[in-house]
Amino acid sequence: MTQRTALVTGGTGGIGSAIVRYLARQGHRVATNYRNADKAEAWRKAMAAEGIEVCMVSGDVSDPASCTALIRAIEAECGPVEILVNNAGITRDTTFHKMSYEQWTDVVNTNLNACFNVTRPVIEGMRARKWGRIVQISSINGQKGQYGQANYAAAKAGMHGFTISLAQENAKFGITVNTVSPGYVATDMVMAVPEEVRAKIEAQIPVGRLGKPEEIAHAVAFLTGEETGWMTGANLAINGGQYMGW
Ligand code: CAA
Fold this sequence. Notes:
alpha/beta, Rossmann fold, 7-stranded parallel sheet, 9 helices, 48% helix, 15% strand, globular, binds acetoacetyl-coenzyme A
């Protein structure tokens, strides 16, 4: 296999960690950003104990200047970013009539504007080298909407709009751009949903359980592979059958 440099934003999180692990085990050099230095150091040590060395750089994906510096630092340490997984994301769930402007903008900045902030400093190099793989980690709730998530669903739906435009603009440069839309995966983010609400959601999943982070990472590895050069602008819905719209 060809060793590539991969940046997974939010790599220290639930799905992010699984993606980092999967790409590293495939032989890629993997980098991620972090905001909380103590949490990041504990995570780095845990990955190192598994034999995975991750290039870690401080950076806030919601801040364009921070992202420019982040990409420069990663490229200096690990080489040009050839695989980019826009994975960092947050929730600020509340019904819209109670939602503050801050709850709206925090989610839109971190989940959607981050796609601009991180991808913009990377895309020119990918175009010049005529190879790239970009994956947005969206959500089932960007496809179907979700009670209490007007901010999150809007941002996640926007991510796929970003994917299909970038896919068209960059296809002739050997760059594929795709979306993965996970359903409810057993991560801290999903476990933070009140138990009685979560139980009702789980009951709507035909496969009968929450997803595993590795099941999302597996799809990302597929989309970022050398062989996956003819699949672009797609959305892979991985949700245990909870939403089968197309
Ligand atoms: N459909 C219809 N009604 C609903 C509903 C639904 N899906 N969910 C809640 N309600 C109703 C309740 O029955 C209740 O009705 P009554 O007032 O008549 O009893 C009412 O809404 C409660 O409304 P409130 O405005 O008082 O809501 P709240 O402030 O107590 O909490 C909430 C609302 C924060 C949205 C809470 O329901 C919640 O956390 N829901 C889960 C949201 C969710 O799925 N988040 C996903 C997080 S994980 C993630 O995002 C990862 C991913 O990509 C999948």
